[in-house]
Amino acid sequence: MDNLFRSLDTDRANVVWKWKLLEELRQSGLRGDDPRVERAIGNALAEGRPFQPGQPEWLDPNQFTEVLREPVVRRALEGDLVVPPTEFQEFSRAVEKIYTDLLPDRSGEVAGYIPTLKKAPPNRFGIAVCTADGQMYQIGDANAGFSIQSTSKPVSYAMALEQLGAREVHTWVGQEQSGGAFNDPRLSLDAAGKPQNPMINAGAIATLALVESGVEVSERFARVEQTWGRMMGRPPGFDHRTFLAERDTGHGNRGLANLMAAQGMLKMDPTDRDAPQKAAEFYFAVCSMQVDAAGLAAAGATLANGGVAPYTGERVFSQETTGRVLSVMGHSGMYNDSGRFSDQVGLPAKSGVSGNVMMVVPEKRLAVVTFSPRLDEAGNSVRGVEVCRQLVERFGLHPYKSLGTDRGRDLGSAADASRRALGGMPTPTLSGKVADPARPQVPAGAVSHRETERKW
Ligand code: GLU
Description:
- By secondary structure, this protein is α+β, with helices and mostly antiparallel strands.
- The chain folds into three domains: 2-77, Recoverin, domain 1; 109-395, 3-Layer(aba) Sandwich (Beta-lactamase), CATH 3.40.710; 414-455, no CATH class.
- 46% of the residues lie in helices and 8% in strands.
- The strands form three sheets. The protein has a five-stranded antiparallel sheet, sandwiched between helices. It has a three-stranded antiparallel sheet with strand order 5-7-6. The chain has a two-stranded antiparallel ribbon with strand order 1-2.
- The longest helix is centred in the N-terminal third of the chain and has 18 residues, at 85-102.
- The two termini are 31 Å apart.
- 46% of the residues are buried.
- Residues 409-456 have low confidence and may be disordered.
- Bound molecules: glutamic acid.
- Residues 149-150, 182-183, 201, 246, 253, 287, 352-353 line the site of glutamic acid.
């Protein structure tokens, strides 16, 4: 404690200014409105004499010790978070640049099938990045609310897996790309009437039918909300207008529920003839939960962290479940453009027609969420896909496109050369040493700028 205290007591007044502590935490990626930071500082300050309005607040050594009892604050000040501060800042700066570059982009159309989406302000744009430790960077409309739509699907699948196990779940829903649009009635089900995967509408309806089945629907919905709340660190809202409109216009989804029920592929009470309609309505309600990019980024960070939520450290899903969810997001999360997205980005992601994209970067244990309502033809946010693409290219995050450069062999490929031109990884030599003719050798122990980039 002493060293940390001394390093922050820059005025040598035997106090740490609250603003100074917050600034130090901010540099590491922890925001002042992070619930853990607010709680830790709030509790510590409550032990001292109250400050006058307008008076700068400070912590004495005892209060500072109290703040350090919050593990994430201690780790942040010791430079021990999952993404080191310099890397987090570098990533944040890149996000800011991409945001600024894409802000004028007006291509694409907002979803027009229900009024709430049709009337959504089309130019909104927000990005949020959250790591497994809850380091958060956000820019633009990252706190603007939107209905979660299809981005609810991975979590419905996770809940079903946790409750029933993969074997049972996959007797009701498949694991393959559908090969068609997310709501295509001809391509959604296989020959036995089983939906192709949990990321298309039929699969999501079937999956939700497994979640807390047998329990009253309001209670089932509450558990879905609670699960999202556990991941995000705060409960989702609910977009009533979207729910009413989804329910009024959701004939296709009701049709899918009926088709599955007709073939015995929807888990339901067989004596309740309205059960397929109820299954569809449960799905509409789940799609209508309201979130923002910052909250969704924390949910994504939970997946990036193997199922442990960033703000509470609570295990929400097992590693096994999380792995399955990321796998299906990897092959079917981006509607009918999932194959191309996999080629260009190569990371698990899920999009929703409100204009959100949640991308998980497992290697870095973080998630990037964008919100921008204008969509491309597949239904993915135009700016959202571009953010993913540019970040992956800038930091070499595609899991299959940097192979061979860091395993002690210089393949001398064109891809390698282009990475080097972009300022990516140094080229390893046959001896396994990194040789970069463009740069002088760095003394042992020193961390070069190039090394920092390499981590991304
Ligand atoms: N509620 C929408 C539907 O079922 C979800 C659309 C989406 O985000 O993919 O049509």
